Amino acid sequence: MTKRKGIILAGGSGTRLWPITMGVSKQLLPLYDKPMIYYPLSVLMLGGIREIAIITTPEDQTQFQRLMGDGSQWGLSFTWIVQPAPDGLAQAYLLARDFLNGAPSAMVLGDNIFFGHGLPETLAAADAQPMGGTVFGYRVADPERYGVVDFAPDGTVRSIQEKPEKPPSNYAVTGLYYLDGRAPDLAETVRPSARGELEIVDLLEKYRSEGSLRVERMGRGYAWLDTGTHGSLLDAGNFVRTLTDRQGLQVGSPDEIAWRSGFITREALLKRADTFRKNDYGRYLLGIASE
Predict the structure, then answer these.
(1) Digits of tens for pLDDT over the chain (291 positions)?
(2) pTM over 0.85
(3) Residues with Cβ < 8 Å from 27, sequence gap 6 or more?
């Protein structure tokens, strides 16, 4: 079992999705048949992580807690942290300092969806690195929209450039970060950017400059989706629906992952299935409990 702790950053105001996020957190929106936050949660669970801090806005926290509880239904332990203002992704490590208590971490953004055969093995490879940081690079057709990895000829990371006019590669940095126990201390040395935020790129640069930042490239068999626009939100929902309907398998199900990972008993899974007995999700859970 990994000693790494997880962080889900589910704060922010979701202004790019207004008006639909004016009354509800973006990470609580439905992504086909499940709340959006289930998908990044499932990534941490596939990495074997069971202690997870969930960072939310003050206004939205009670809604998240009503949805997710304390995590015990999935064999997890949740710590709830308030982000008073969205002051940058690197701020999450300052807010989670006491929770981490020196442990290495895996932080995932609450609006990122990852899918692919072999994802647990990829996460395990990152978890096995005792020091430094690991980010996950994904090939995109429009790298100028993202933070982009500049690779040296030998494959090491030369720099990460934020939304460059002339991208040095087609590999974007995804919203999943594996960092060692020094992350809060290093985040404390990051100065606010021109837009007044503690940028994750500046924190990653601390690791890169000492030669301890690695990039795991996600190949053709992976899908990485974010949901920052109305169109990408719809695309992500359609992607999940297509996989679910074609294969008859769930995507981003914490209940299934908890059962197959040995986090919960069969009796606990059956109890969850009974909770959803009136819909297809409950019938699916009942089915896997009977395998």
Answers:
(1) 469 999 999 988 788 889 988 889 999 999 999 999 999 999 999 999 999 999 999 999 999 999 999 999 999 999 999 999 889 999 999 999 999 999 999 999 999 999 998 999 999 999 998 899 999 999 999 999 888 999 988 878 999 988 899 999 999 999 999 999 999 999 999 999 988 899 999 999 999 999 999 999 998 889 999 888 899 999 999 999 999 999 999 999 999 999 999 999 999 999 999 999 999 999 999 999 988
(2) yes
(3) 10, 35, 36, 37, 64, 110, 111
